[in-house]
Amino acid sequence: MMEREFSEQELVRREKAKALADAGIDPFGQRFDITHFSSQIKEEFAGKTHEELEEMAVPVKVAGRIMTKRRKGKVCFMHIQDRDGQIQIYVRKDVIGEENYEIVIKSDIGDIVGIEGTVFVTNTGELSVKAGQFIHLTKALRPLPEKYHGLSDVEERYRRRYVDLIMNEEARKIAFARPKIIRSIQHFLDSKGYVEVETPVLNPILGGAAARPFTTHHNALDMNFYLRIATELSLKRLIVGGMDAVYEIGRLFRNEGMDRTHNPEFTTIEVYKAFSDLEGMMDLTEGIISNAAMEVCGTYELEYKGHQISLAPGFKRVSMTDAIKEKTGIDFAEELTFDQAKAFADEHHIEVEAHFGYGHIVNAFFEKYVEETIVEPTFVYGHPIEISPLAKKNMQDPRFTQRFELFICGNEYANAFTELNDPIDQYERFSNQLKEKELGNDEANEMDLDYVEALEYGLPPTGGMGMGIDRLVMLLTGQESIREVILFPHMKNK
User: Fold this and answer.
1) Helix, strand, coil fractions of the chain, as percent rounded to 5
2) Angstrom distance (rounded) from CA 344 to CA 360
3) Are the beta carbons of 319 and 404 closer than 8 angstroms?
């Protein structure tokens, strides 16, 4: 094993840790019971005068990381940072005593300390804590990055998220906003009678979405499993079982590329409601997003990717074929043959792959000419049957399905169906997926006979929807990279 070389600062800090231990102080501390976070002090005592606070003499115990420190003889000012932000600490040698003040002098930026004292306001009007006792809690053996630049290398910020959270207020805001957004979704759905459930991450059969899986091996069963690419088929089994309205917020795994909106491990919500349909899911999706915007941001109006958008209820609704017609003049809702569709594709420089049917061409037109042009929240519905193996057919035109995707600023946020509940049709669609697999589509589903059997017991007419939580967090916190909203995103090796 290679010996690590320490910088001069690191060597000095290690010597200071040893000096603390020699003086009978644990360099890595013991329990400290805080009474207030910095934000509580600022809220509780805002507007109080120096005299009022002197009279109140409110005792507090705060703890945090030293972020700034300046000393003038027998007085020291420092800012410590806790969960909520920073607060100033005022330390006087004649108050805390000579021995204790020696610990203050030898403390470093980055050390974690506890303060017992009283709240007061300085001459410049800053709410602060006057230390009665200064308790060393943890010695930081590495110095923090230089304050004004922090971790300027974006890759390093993601690799060492713990340092990013210390130095970067925006990173902390996102870290705390994400669980608030998830809670708002849970509260919204719970209030409407939906039940939150958990389904397996390891699946013996690939299904529920079109995606390349991660595979793993279970030793005791001597079987290969897939990490789930969707929660769909398990959740619909619960609707067959009579649970009526269910949802799951959880991790999915797709063995695919990484970019600004894709991480191989990501979080979604899937929602299913018996006796609902596509329109019911549009209303629900709109409600989830607009409610989260109001609860977390306090407004429906946001700026994202340079666009002003509104997340107020009343999202636009347009069919896929109408959206394509508007951009290209081609009406795929007409009775065109595959050869006619292929000719249009050739004219428009769209590659027609070996496994393509009519619907694949329609979808390719949408992806090339429409998807990135959508700015305001828009439900695009009526997807071709070839790309929607789990959606119910459109009764008027069986080439298309009762499915929608929600697009905002060129990105997809949700995908929903009136669920396919005909077991005979479902068996045929799984069979067609197997044919596509043989033709080289490695995202095609496998045959799930147990799921077909479940449908044979009777799945009521059902609406279902899946939404990417990471992308919703990006939207509501104004971030354009998924890595900003995942605390520990996947990274290439250094």
Assistant:
1) 35, 25, 40
2) 13
3) no
Tokens of 366: 């949408």
Using CA atoms, how far apart are residues 58 and 118, in angstroms rounded to an integer? 5
CA 441 to chain centre: 29
Q: Please state whether beta strands 215-218 and 112-121 pair in parallel, antiparallel, or not at all (unpaired).
A: unpaired
pLDDT value at 413 more than 90: yes
At 1 the pLDDT is 56
Token pair 């110095």 is found at: 143
| 3 state SS of 29 | coil
Q: Which domains does the chain have, with CATH numbers?
A: 8-144 (2.40.50.140), 167-315+376-484 (3.30.930.10)
User: What are the strands, taking DSSP E only, across 286-432?
Assistant: 301-304, 307-310, 316-319, 378-381, 403-408, 411-418
Is residue 15 a contact partner of residue 147, using CB atoms and an 8 Å limit?
no
SS3 435: helix
CA-to-CA distance for 295 and 301, rounded, in angstroms? 13
Residue 283: partners with Cβ closer than 8 Å, 6 or more residues away: none
Q: What is the DSSP letter of 392?
A: P
CB 129 within 8 A of CB 60: yes
Confidence of residue 456 (pLDDT cuts 50, 70, 90): very high
* Closest by Cα among 482, 488, 487 to 470: 482
What is d(CA 223, CA 393) in angstroms, rounded to the nearest whole number? 35
Distance between CA atoms of 78 and 106, rounded to whole angstroms? Answer: 13
